[in-house]
Amino acid sequence: MRLLPQVTEAGTRAGVTAKCWHGIPAGTPVTAAMGDLQCYMLATLQSDTDAGLQCVYSQLLNCI
């Protein structure tokens, strides 16, 4: 039994919508997304020497 989708790189086409959903037409391409931390870092960091910290409500500290 396969319960989870195959892991793919962000931006990879995962398929298309099977039917209209909240105004999004059937056949619209769907791609794999990045996680919220990865998106935050990608949008924030300007160069390879930059670093970022994200403190969240669960008291975890993420550093990339």
Short description:
The protein contains 1 helix and 4 strands. It has one helix at 36-44; strands spanning 13-16, 29-31, 53-55, 61-63.
Would you kindly provide a written description of the structure presented here, covering whatever features stand out?
It contains one helix and four strands; from the N terminus they run ββαββ. With 64 residues, the protein is α+β, with helices and mostly antiparallel strands. The protein has one domain. The strands form two sheets. The protein has a two-stranded antiparallel sheet with strand order 1-2. Strands 3-4 form a two-stranded antiparallel ribbon. The longest helix has 9 residues. The chain is elongated and about 45 Å long. The N and C termini lie far apart (36 Å). The mean pLDDT is 82.
Topology (SSEs and partners):
Layout: E1 13-16, E2 29-31, H1 36-44, E3 53-55, E4 61-63
Antiparallel strand pairs: 1-2, 3-4
Largest sheet: 2 strands, antiparallel
Gyration radius, rounded:
17 Å
Number of domains: 1
Helix content: 10-25%
Mean pLDDT over all positions: 82
Number of strands: 4
- Rough shape? elongated
Order of helices and strands: EEHEE
Taking pLDDT < 50 over at least 5 consecutive residues as the criterion, the unreliable ranges are: none
Major beta sheet, strand line-up: 1-2
Residues in β-strands, percent:
15-25%
Oligomer: single chain
Structural class: alpha+beta
Number of helices: 1
Task: For the record, give the distance between the C-alpha atoms at the N and C termini, rounded to a whole number.
Answer: 36 Å
